[in-house]
Write the structure tokens for this entry.
Amino acid sequence: MGDSKKKMNFFALLVPGFLFQSVVIGGGYGTGNEIAQYFGVHGMTGGLIGMVVTLLVWAIIAAVTFEFCRVFRTFDYNSMSQKMLGKVGVLYEVCYIVLMLIVLGVINATASSMFADLAGINGWFGVAILSAGIIFLVLKGTRAIEVVLSFWSYVLYAVYITFMVITFVKFGKNISGEFAAGITPELLGGQEGSNSIGSCIVDGFKYSFYNLGIVPAILYTVRNCETRKEAVSCGLLAGAIAVIPAALLVLALGCDLNSAVTAAFSDSTAVSVVFGNLNMRWLYVAFEIVLFGTLIETGSGFIKAVDDRIEVSAAKGGKEVKGWVRPVVTIGLTVLGVCISTFGLTALIAKGYGTICWGFLFVYVIPMLTIGVYKIAKGPKGTTTDIVGAEK
């Protein structure tokens, strides 16, 4: 029994990271476009410098957020922002809704592009399958989402590792050559601002900020954390788990970095360049299947957070949410995401994400590292059980 208990606890520590990773990948970087636009433009060395910045930011903010929510038992994004910012917390919700709509547009545009490029059929079939998967998973509830997303993370790592090994075997010299070039002195893909350590760091921060908006969407995964050590460990692991596939993808793009960056700023995808060079269709198909699964996970994670927010707010007011509310909200947001996807994948990533990152910096990152840390220090001490008992 003792060993089983330890294994269960260790798995529970990984679950928030698995969900964070799945949502981040499906939200954009699975296509390689985000990775190329924020990191690839700086060359291999500069890109990995920016990636280290992202890792540190994600891990630290996730750790503080999870501990804040453990102490104050705020396991939906609205409760968290209200506890941290009071009435001003509505600004966080505005940023979250904007980010969610952008992400829903991105995943639908990605699904459409995948079906058109991979199978040569109308992209709307991909959108339809994606929408059905999101609706099904959200309506199945929390446990189903946790199980499916955690399992899919193992599948994801298996495919990514296979992908990386083959890429290094075939194009190791190209990748080594990109490292030898250091931080890219010339433009990549015709993009500016890629020739200084400062720009690498800034892009690492920018990329981390808007993706941090996802952390409060998965707060329900840390509801069983009873101690500070558990909550902080969940956060640190989440940062690492989410960054590893991104770092691997940066390395893979090194097989033909200039073409990958160029593709990322056009109507194509960066990973398609890598697979084009590999000329291994079976691996491309496996990769796209895994990516499609993460798209469903991403949409499910964002929409479920909104459903939870509605239900928790109603419960606090002593009201009961009608059974039809969750399906209507889920279907409505899914359809809205489909409409937004018509703006195109490249425009949504370049313009939408680039703007919203500053919103999360001011309404989430800075407040959590200041007000949040202060309230944690002044808040009740002990395990979750002790805190609940003391308040009663």
Remarks:
- The two ends are 32 Å apart (CA to CA).
- The chain has one domain: 10-380.
